[in-house]
Amino acid sequence: AIDPEFEDNREVVEQHDGHDVWGPVEEPETLGIHGTHVAVDFDICIADGACLEDCPVDVFEWVDTPDHPESEIKADPAHEDQCIDCMLCVDVCPVDAIDVDPG
Ligand code: SF4
Ligand code: F3S
Ligand code: ZN
User: Fold this and answer.
1) How many Å lie between the centroid of ligand 3 and the Cα of residue 28?
2) Is the reported ipTM for this assembly greater than 0.85?
3) Which residue ranges form the domains of the chain, and what is each CATH number?
4) Residues with CB under 6 A from ligand 1
């Protein structure tokens, strides 16, 4: 599961599409965590898609991650600023790849 303390345990190493990427990142096998308010651990995501289907405000978009061992697409929190903290994505992800921090 995603580390809920990732902000203490990781560093921001790059930006992607307007959000933070928390390292380490070593493409293509290690992709880190995308987003902060809505955080998706790309190294855990298996492209189940429930988060994209269920998010009421369409926070997520698919991005291509060729040659990643878990899946070749990931749910990117492209619109994390629109999140209304319903926590549905956290509940439906089968591998607990998502952390939403309503702070
Ligand atoms: Fe979407 Fe709700 Fe998840 Fe926020 S908590 S990203 S609104 S499903
Ligand atoms: Fe990935 Fe979980 Fe969404 S596996 S696609 S973050 S439901
Ligand atoms: Zn991203």
Assistant:
1) 14
2) yes
3) 6-92 (3.30.70.20)
4) 38, 55-57, 59, 83-89, 100
